[in-house]
Amino acid sequence: MPPFRVLPAELLDKLSAISRRRNLERNATLIDIGKSANVVGCVMKGVLRMSKTLVDGQQQIVGLLVAGDIFGRVFDGDFPFSIEAATDCEICLFPKAEFEALMEHWPELEKLVILGLLNELDSAREWLGLVANHRTVEKVAGFLVFLHRRWAFLAEEEEQPGGTLIDLPIKRQDLALFLGTRPEAVSRAFHALHDKGHIRIVTPYRFLIVDFEALDRISGQSVSQLDVHRALASGEGPR
Question: Which residue range or ranges hold the HTH crp-type domain (predicted)?
């Protein structure tokens, strides 16, 4: 799976020898805020959320990690946020010290981690673009644009006559926290996009994307992570 499939076979064998798989149930905490985690990981299935508690006690989701994303603070200390399972997840974990040692001897792995950091930075920029929108319908449209592009890369979309099926990977309450709004506002936004014919609500967590260009215009975002993810998969740097 991306991104490790681009690495040399010998390095893959070394990573496999130190790796372990772990399953997480939804809402399970993997890493607490302010703690030093002695692991580096990669999401295999499901979605992890990165969050922190604000001064008023409210939780704010600051990012999402999906299949193929690498996480962990190599050559660094404590986490400034917590990492929890937004859905049931399967992850692959590596001991941090041994992973760092491999990075020092294998430039291919070091490059992969750097590209992952650039990808995380792009994700943060896109998230800022989403939450900067004043209207919830713009935020929801932007999130669907992001999912459409990301799921297309991961081949987790299902083409249907008249559009593309996408499954919402997190609960609406988590999506509201991620977008800085309320669950009822998110629901109204989905129905507004449905009424305009841009999407069709199949179930509360499954949507048919009918007019991708319209969603892109509504969101006001033209930022795509697709090129970065293709670079990760091919072993090339971002252009």
Answer: 134-213
